[in-house]
C-alpha cells in the first residue's frame, strides 16, 4: 500500500500511538511499517473514530441529550398555543385592505413558508445538537449570532406584550362601562384606557413578574387558546346576527349617506390596494411566529425525531391556518370596510352578555399571559449579561424599568396595526425567513450533497431580504402620510 500523504517512514517509525480503550488489540489493527508500506486500515479506522468523537463532543457542547416525555398530541397543542396570539385580532383588518383573493394567497403562502422555515430550523438543530435558538445562533455565528437571535426573539415577545396590553387598553373601558350600565360614549378618568392599562400593569402584572419563577402561569396559555377559540365561535355566530346595513348605518364615514352606498359597502371585495395594504403581510407574519418555542417543544417530544417534529409543525400550522382564515373571513363579512385593526373592539357590548363574556375572557387571558412573555425576555436579558445568579435588587429594578418602557409604548402607539406592522417587518421576518435560512446555509456550506436544498434556502433568504426592503419603507411612508392618526374609533 502507498504511504499516507505527508507522512515519512522515519516519522511513522518514531510515532507514539496514544492508548485508546475503544481500539481493538487485534494484530491487524496495529500500525505496521514494512518495506515502505503502512497498514492504512488502522489509520482509517482511527480517524473515523476521532471524527465521530469530535462530532459527538461538538453536539454535547451545545446541549446534552435528554429524552423527551411529551406525546405528539400534546406537542401539537403546545405549538398551536405558541402560534396563536393577538395576531388573530388583526387578520380581518388585513383582509379588508387586501381583498378575499389576495388575502387568501398571502395566508396560504405565509403558512407554507413558515412550515419550510421550521424544517430548516429542525435540520440546523439536528446538525448542531442545539435545542435553544440563542445557543444555535451562538454555535453557528458566534456571539453576533447569539445577539441577533436574542434581539429578534426579544422584540417579538415585546411586540406580543404590547399587543396584549393594547387589548387591555381598548377592551377594559368597554367592559367597565357595560358593568356600570353606561353608554359607550360615557367618559371619565376611571374608564380611560391609558389609565386602566397602567393600573392593571402595576397592580396585577408587576407582582406576578416579580415572582422568582412563574410556574403555574404556564397553564394560562391553554386558557388563552380556549379564549381565542371562543372568540372565533362568537365571530362566526355574530356574522349571522349583525346585519351589514345596520353596521353601515352606525359608521361615521361621510360616504355612507344613501342606501346605494350602503349596499355597495356590503359587497365583498376580492382584490384591494390602498395605503393600508402594506400592513397585511407583516400582520400575517406576526400571527404565525412561533420559532422561539419550536426547539424547546422539540426537545420535550417523546421519541423525538426530525420527521416527527415536522409532523407536529404541519398539524399545528394547518389548524391555525383554519382558525385564522375563519376569523378573518367572518369578521370581514360582518363589518366589511368598517373593520378595525382590533376586531374584538368592533363588537359593542351594550346589552350583549355574550360579547361581554368573550371580552372579559380575552382580557383576563392576555393579562395572565403578559408575565409569561415578560419572564422570557428578562431571563434572556440576564443570560446575555451573564447575570444568571438571582439578585432581588437587580430583579426588581429591571422588572420595573422594562414595564415602564412597555407602558409608555402602549400609551403612545396609536393603533394595533402599528405594532403588527413594525414587529412583522422586523423580528417576525428575521425569525421566519432570514435566520433559519442563514443558519442552514452556514451549517451546510461544505456539504455538496445538499446543493439543491441550499439553492432553495438561498431563495428563501432572498425573499426575506426583499420583504424587509419593500415593507419597511412602505410602513414608514404610511406613518408619514397618516401623521400618526388613529383609525376611526380605535
From TrEMBL:
Q: Name one GO molecular function term.
A: L-glutamine transmembrane transporter activity
Superkingdom in the source lineage: Eukaryota
Region forming the signal peptide = none
The cellular location(s) given in this protein's UniProt record come to: Membrane
Kindly list the biological process annotations in GO that this record carries. amino acid transmembrane transport; gamma-aminobutyric acid biosynthetic process; glutamine transport; regulation of synaptic plasticity; regulation of synaptic transmission, GABAergic
Report any Pfam family annotated for this entry. Aa_trans
Q: Which residues form the Amino acid transporter transmembrane domain?
A: 69-474
Q: What is its main location?
A: membrane
Q: Provide the Gene Ontology terms for cellular component.
A: axon; basolateral plasma membrane; plasma membrane
Answer yes or no on keyword Cell division.
no
InterPro entries according to UniProt: AA_transpt_TM
Q: How does it sit in the membrane?
A: Multi-pass membrane protein
What keywords are assigned to this protein?
A: Membrane, Transmembrane, Transmembrane helix
| Protein's UniProt keywords contain Membrane | yes
Q: What is this protein called?
A: Solute carrier family 38 member 1
Its source organism is Gallus gallus
Amino acid at each position: 500500500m502507498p504511504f499516507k500523504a505527508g507522512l515519512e517512514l522515519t516519522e511513522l517509525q518514531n510515532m507514539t500511538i496514544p492508548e485508546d480503550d475503544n481500539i481493538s488489540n487485534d494484530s491487524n489493527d496495529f500500525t505496521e511499517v514494512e518495506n515502505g508500506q503502512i497498514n492504512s486500515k488502522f489509520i482509517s479506522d482511527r480517524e473515523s473514530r476521532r471524527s465521530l468523537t469530535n462530532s459527538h463532543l461538538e453536539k454535547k457542547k451545545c446541549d446534552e441529550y435528554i429524552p423527551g416525555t411529551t406525546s405528539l398530541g400534546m406537542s401539537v397543542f403546545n405549538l398551536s398555543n405558541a402560534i396563536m396570539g393577538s395576531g388573530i385580532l388583526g387578520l380581518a383588518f388585513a383582509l379588508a385592505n387586501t381583498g378575499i383573493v389576495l388575502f387568501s394567497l398571502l395566508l396560504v403562502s405565509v403558512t407554507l413558508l413558515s412550515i419550510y422555515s421550521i424544517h430548516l430550523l429542525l435540520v440546523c438543530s439536528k446538525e448542531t445538537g442545539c435545542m435553544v435558538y440563542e445557543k444555535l445562533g451562538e454555535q453557528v455565528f458566534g456571539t453576533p449570532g447569539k445577539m441577533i437571535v436574542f434581539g429578534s426573539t426579544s422584540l417579538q415577545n415585546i411586540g406580543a406584550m404590547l399587543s396584549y396590553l393594547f387589548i387591555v387598553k381598548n377592551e377594559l373601558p368597554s367592559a367597565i362601562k357595560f358593568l356600570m350600565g353606561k353608554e359607550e360614549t360615557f367618559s371619565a378618568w376611571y374608564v380611560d384606557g391609558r389609565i386602566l392599562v397602567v393600573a392593571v400593569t402595576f397592580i396585577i402584572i408587576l407582582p406576578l413578574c416579580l415572582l422568582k419563577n412563574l410556574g403555574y402561569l404556564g397553564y394560562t396559555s391553554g386558557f388563552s387558546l380556549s379564549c381565542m377559540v371562543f372568540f372565533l365561535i362568537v365571530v362566526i355566530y355574530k356574522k349571522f346576527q349583525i346585519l351589514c346595513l345596520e353596521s353601515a348605518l352606525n359608521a361615521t364615514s361621510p360616504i355612507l349617506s344613501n342606501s346605494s352606498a350602503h349596499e355597495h359597502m356590503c359587497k365583498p371585495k376580492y382584490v384591494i390596494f390602498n395605503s393600508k395594504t402594506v400592513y397585511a403581510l407583516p400582520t400575517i407574519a406576526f400571527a404565525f411566529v412561533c420559532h422561539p418555542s419550536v426547539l424547546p417543544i422539540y426537545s420535550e417530544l417523546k421519541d423525538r425525531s426530525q420527521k416527527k417534529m415536522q409532523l407536529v409543525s404541519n398539524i399545528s400550522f394547518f389548524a391555525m391556518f383554519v382558525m385564522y382564515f375563519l376569523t378573518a373571513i367572518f369578521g370581514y363579512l360582518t363589518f366589511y370596510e368598517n373593520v378595525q385593526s382590533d376586531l374584538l373592539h368592533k363588537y359593542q357590548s351594550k346589552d350583549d352578555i355574550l360579547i361581554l363574556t368573550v371580552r372579559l375572557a380575552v382580557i383576563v387571558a392576555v393579562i395572565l399571559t403578559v408575565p409569561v412573555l415578560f419572564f422570557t425576555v428578562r431571563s434572556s436579558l440576564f443570560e446575555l449579561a451573564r447575570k444568571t445568579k438571582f439578585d432581588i435588587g437587580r430583579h426588581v429594578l429591571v422588572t420595573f424599568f422594562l414595564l415602564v418602557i412597555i407602558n409608555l409604548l402602549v400609551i403612545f402607539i396609536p393603533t394595533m396595526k402599528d405594532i403588527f406592522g413594525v414587529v412583522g417587518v422586523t423580528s417576525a421576518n428575521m425569525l421566519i425567513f432570514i435566520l433559519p435560512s442563514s443558519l442552514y446555509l452556514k451549517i451546510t456550506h461544505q456539504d455538496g450533497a445538499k446543493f439543491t436544498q441550499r439553492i432553495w434556502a438561498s431563495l428563501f433568504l432572498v425573499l426575506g431580504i426583499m420583504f424587509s426592503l419593500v415593507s419597511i419603507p412602505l410602513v414608514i411612508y404610511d406613518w408619514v402620510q397618516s401623521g400618526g392618526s388613529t383609525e376611526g374609533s380605535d
